[in-house]
Amino acid sequence: MRTPPLTSLLAQRMLGLPAPMTRDLVIERDLEVPMRDGAVLLADRWSPRSGGDGLPTALLRSPYGRGGPFALQLARPLAERGFQVLMQSSRGTGGSDGEFDPLRRERFDGIDTVDWVVKQPWFGRALVLSGQSYLAYSQWAMADQLPAEVKAMIPAVSESALGMAFLRKEAFALESLFGWALLIEAGRRPWAMPRFLLGARRRRRAETVLPLSDAGHAALGHRSDVIQNFLAHDSDSPFWAGGDLSHQVSDVTIPASLIGGWFDVFLHGQLRDYTRLEAAGRRPRLTIGPWAHSDGPMMKAMVMETVEFGLAHAQGTEPADRASVRVFVMGEEKWRDLSAWPPPGYAPERFHLHPAGRLALEPPPESAADSYRYDPADPTPAFAGVRMIPGVKAGRVDNTALEARPDVLTYTSDILTEEVEMIGDVSADIWFRSSLPHADVFVRVCDVDPAGRSTNICDGLTGVTQADELSNVTVSLSPTAYRFRSGHRIRVQISSGAFPQYNRNLGTGEPRLTATRLEAADQSVFHDPEHPSTVSLPTRTR
Asked: pTM for the whole thing?
């Protein structure tokens, strides 16, 4: 294996990684790792052909197979840069025994795996946990109960309560959960990622199937227990009692470096994990780039942090000094070091919706509500933004076509005469009423450049019951860091959906799993002195 496959060289070149220490690797396939219940999980060990024994070990635990992009972009780069790597298939995937039961088995399987690793003759004195998404959740699952040999963890684009935000009754993240379940199904067989991407058209068709209980069969040709469990159990169901590990974060003592993206679906939870570590007196690091969940630059940042932060701790030295929080400020398009999260010096500033589509700091005058019609048979589409599934466009895009739809309201500020910078949490309070008892409110903040191009920055959605009664609906948008340039304008979109990012609200209140009827609704957004609808941006205080 002196010459790595061309696909590996291309993958690493795309990531922009520095030159490796070696390319001459050995891979031991299908190592058997015993669990406490008698199950055996399979793993591959990657190591340099010469001098691999005794090097720090990077542990990657994945339900997506042990080959393909995860091997090329994670296992190989780390094994070429100072680690030996153990890449393990989660229970019920990649040839490992048992059934894959998302979120509910990773704790004890992870603890048993670490216990096995530190007893192997090739193990040195240090173990580092790394990986993104579910691989990062696998780290959190055991992070509060680790032996001294574990020196650091690098969880990327993930959180300790993975998936709980997806399963909210009032904002079911259909695309993320459905796509994730199909990716897991693909991971049971070789070539998981190509198989998943080739099935994209079938997946998109299945997302429109009613009732949703039939969607899994439409996508796979057979029933999927994973999909059925996601559809049947909301985040507050006892079924997921063991999946939310956020209460354990304050007990984690090993050095941790968290990597996230402004367009990642798990950012809210990741920031919560960071602040809990801080509150517990730890010294975590946080890096947030202009990335979505599967972006290549995020993968590069994770690999580099595993090498620079993880390897330093594994070798008993301190990593290179840097600010505890480093974020990419969009609009300015530069990295910024911060002393804390949320950063001092920023405070919520309320921008009010006005008649005639105006957005301003001053309260609105007396005015009639604005109205639009939402039809679940032709749902308001999702345009990029916060998306998770590989192959789905995410991040910043031109919103002109979306804003031209009659079911999207827009409110735009005057031309800015000076720059406006915001870093932190964004929220909206919208006075809203529907002709039906069940509706959704979607809010998005955009930057409109001098040419009129509207680019999305952050957004969020919440469901409303008793929506036929006038109420103030609070919507939590994604945290962000953004600078509006002088000469630009700030815009706010209001609509009632972002399909298939979120499940369309059918308007009937029927159970999500079995609902089939669709009802269109007339929606009203109020902006008068007694009902001031606002969006709060965390702007720099003067």
From this structure: 0.94
